[in-house]
Write a structure and sequence with these properties.
The structure holds 2 protein chains of 2 kinds. By secondary structure, chain A is α/β, with parallel strands linked by helices. Chain A contains 7 helices and 13 strands. Helices cover 30% and strands 29% of the residues of chain A. In chain B, strand 2 and strand 3 form a beta hairpin. The chains are: A alpha/beta, B alpha/beta. The structure holds flavin-adenine dinucleotide and adenosine monophosphate (AMP).
Chain lengths: 262, 325
């Protein structure tokens, strides 16, 4: 009985690090910059990556549920990335780390920067968003797990921590995998059980006083030679087949004969 | 030492359809580079039986790793086998499906090999003797062409883009030695809970029928389900109805849901917000049914019907059923 209790205490005093990225808002019209290889940031509003909000919320929920533990947030990027960290602090994270670098590194080089920082820290859970909605890579979490040789589960909708183990629900095609992981581990979070809270005014004020540590990012290669960005092919203006149910036979004919899609 | 590695995904002992797409993509890369396609299938006992079929899509050699330790997916176990194989054979590129498994595995493999990874590629070409990948960013608002500094190039390919092509080839099935013990894995799948019925996943289905707030009530999604069933497609949803709790997030299409590229996409009672369009605009054909002639969805639809979905959709389902007899 006592051992079980002890295990549970150990299992719930969780120290989480949540990796977060500053990304263009989903509403943003994304334009290619003059160099043909980067995005023109002018007029673009930036936000905390929506999937990272789920991850921050998950960490906060678990800290609140256990009534102990800590939540640190970490971002790799230019000085402006501090905005995403402040948002996470305003939601309730305890402290923030900004690993500064120029430009917007992606993939393995970001993973290397994160892994080298995490190696210096003690933590139980490293949480990530399922993907960053700018580069759409869906990779950094699994890469960090690999670099740190930690177990991982990606695309997690909810998880529990008990007795030094994590049980995570992972979304797969047509179902859910129930994965059991040893701590410490890496999870990447998607929409599910964690509806992100809004930062309260009090939270925003408090965030200003919370510690935000800055250091140089230890980026490593490799980078992709970027060979150019392009807009998706414009879709030809379609046609209105007709109005109401009377138009259905004509639609079906077009789908069969013209599109050959059914 | 060479070859193009094709990861053929199996689940419950059966090779999945996405694997034929992966082998097809690998075949065309291999042809241009003058390489062989090495397909690798991992799974529990029985997985060998479906593996031979990969030859039809262009695998020169098919390696089957059959072991109880592999009967369920393990990031650590699968990454070890894939990475060891790629190293031993000196593969120049490794192609994975952009499936739940592929997108978990490929980044681990890239990290272990210390090379770059391109996700959800929609085209793979050869320029100056090296692989170049085209991949969407910003949920398809832009497409990037990327090269690879070093080999092997690691990529995952988007579902439904590389249509499986059958050829008259006869690749050989060989056994891959597996010396792994599931007890060493730090993450283990305890259970798989299938969604009710063997449902097609929205990201993999060739036809997707999506419904939005215009449905007015979760009960009314029956109309969407019936049409999807008549067409042999999957059900998708806008975020509005997912947020309302009418549909699971697994069905959400858009920038914070799945990005889909089916042959045929139906947007029914969906206005066409920028975040929704981002997730479906590269579909081959788009059909919109909406009562508002000014709905932005009509700007991207190939075919539109302006009208009340409650009248149009049942009629459409009926016509499709007639057609399919
Ligand atoms: C950060 C963020 C991320 C987002 N990510 C996504 C995402 O991934 N996917 C997504 O879909 N959205 C996303 N959204 C939400 C998006 O902005 C829209 O709010 C959402 O797509 C609207 O859903 P809808 O088209 O179903 O509803 P509405 O916009 O309300 O449209 C309903 C449509 O139904 C039509 N209609 C009504 N009744 C009928 C009838 N009887 N017959 C025919 N037509 C009818 C109406 O004319 C209208 O066009 C995101 C938003 C944000 C802020
Ligand atoms: N620059 C970054 N700084 C901190 N975390 C990041 C960064 N880029 C990606 N991540 C994390 O990795 C997740 C997946 O990103 P990606 O692989 O780029 O799609 C994100 O949701 C973040 O949690």
């Amino acid at each position: 009985m006592t051992t079980r209790l002890d295990e549970r205490v150990v299992g719930t005093r969780v120290r989480s690090v949540v990796c977060v990225k500053r990304v263009p808002d989903t509403e943003a019209r994304i334009r290619i910059a003059g160099d043909g290889n980067s995005v023109d940031p002018s007029g673009v509003k930036f936000v905390l990556n929506p999937y990272d909000e789920f991850a921050v919320e998950a960490a906060l929920k678990h800290r609140e549920g256990a009534n102990e533990g800590s939540v640190a947030v970490l971002s790799v990027g230019p000085a402006e990335s501090a905005e995403a960290l402040r948002t996470a602090l305003a939601m309730g994270a305890d402290q923030a780390i900004l690993l500064r670098c120029a430009g917007g590194p992606e993939g393995l080089s970001v993973a290397r920067a994160i892994a080298s920082e995490l190696k210096e820290r003690e933590f139980d859970l490293a949480l990530f968003g399922m993907k960053a909605i700018d580069d759409d890579l869906q990779a950094v979490g699994a890469m960090v797990a690999e670099l740190l040789e930690l177990p991982s589960a990606t695309v997690v909708t909810e998880f529990e921590i008990e007795g030094g183990k994590v049980t995570a629900h992972r979304e797969i095609e047509g179902g859910v995998e129930i994965v059991e992981l040893d701590l410490p581990c890496v999870l990447t979070i998607t929409k599910g059980a964690y509806e992100p809270r809004y930062a309260s005014l009090k939270g925003i004020m408090a965030a200003k006083k919370k510690p935000l540590e800055e250091k140089e990012a230890q980026l490593g290669g490799p980078s992709h030679p970027e060979l150019g960005l392009a807009y998706p092919p414009e879709r030809e203006a379609g046609r209105i087949v007709g109005e109401g149910p009377e138009a259905v036979p004509e639609l079906v004919r077009l789908l069969r004969e013209e599109a050959k899609a059914i | 030492m060479s070859g193009i590695f094709a990861f053929a995904e199996a689940r419950d002992g059966a090779v999945r359809r996405v694997s034929y797409e992966v082998v097809t993509a690998a075949r065309s890369v291999a042809n241009e580079l003058g390489e062989e396609v090495h397909a690798v299938v991992l799974g529990g006992s029985g997985v060998r039986s479906g593996a031979a079929k990969l030859a039809k899509y262009g695998a020169d050699r098919i390696f089957v790793g059959e072991s109880d330790a592999l009967s369920r997916y393990s990031p650590e176990g699968y990454a070890t086998l894939a990475t060891d194989f790629i190293r031993q054979h000196g593969c120049r590129a490794a192609i994975f499906p952009a499936s739940a498994m592929g997108k978990d595995l490929a980044p681990r493999v890239a990290a272990r090999l210390g090379v770059a990874y391109a996700a959800e590629c929609t085209a793979l070409t050869i320029e100056a003797g090296a692989l170049v990948a085209t991949r969407p960013k910003f949920a398809g608002k832009l497409f990037a062409k990327v090269g690879f500094e070093q080999e092997p190039a690691i990529v995952s390919i988007r579902s439904n883009v590389f249509t499986p092509e059958e050829r008259s080839a006869a690749g050989e099935v060989e056994a891959l030695e597996v010396s792994l013990n599931a007890a060493d894995f730090g993450a283990v799948v305890r259970e798989i809970r299938a969604a009710a019925g063997e449902k097609l996943d929205v990201a993999e289905a060739p036809i997707v029928v999506s419904g939005g707030r215009g449905l007015r009530d979760p009960e009314n999604f029956k109309l969407i389900e019936e049409l999807a069933e008549a067409l042999g497609g999957a059900v998708g949803a806008s975020r509005a109805v997912v947020d309302a709790g009418w549909r699971p997030h697994a069905e959400q299409v858009g920038q914070t849901g799945k990005t889909v590229a089916p042959q045929l996409y139906f947007a029914i009672g969906i206005s066409g917000a920028i975040q929704h369009l981002a997730g479906m605009r590269t579909s081959r054909y788009i059909v919109a049914i909406n009562k508002d002639p000014d709905a932005p969805i009509f700007k991207v639809a190939d075919y539109g019907i302006v009208g009340d979905l409650f009248e149009v959709v049942p009629r459409l389902t009926e016509e499709i059923r007639k057609l399919r007899g």
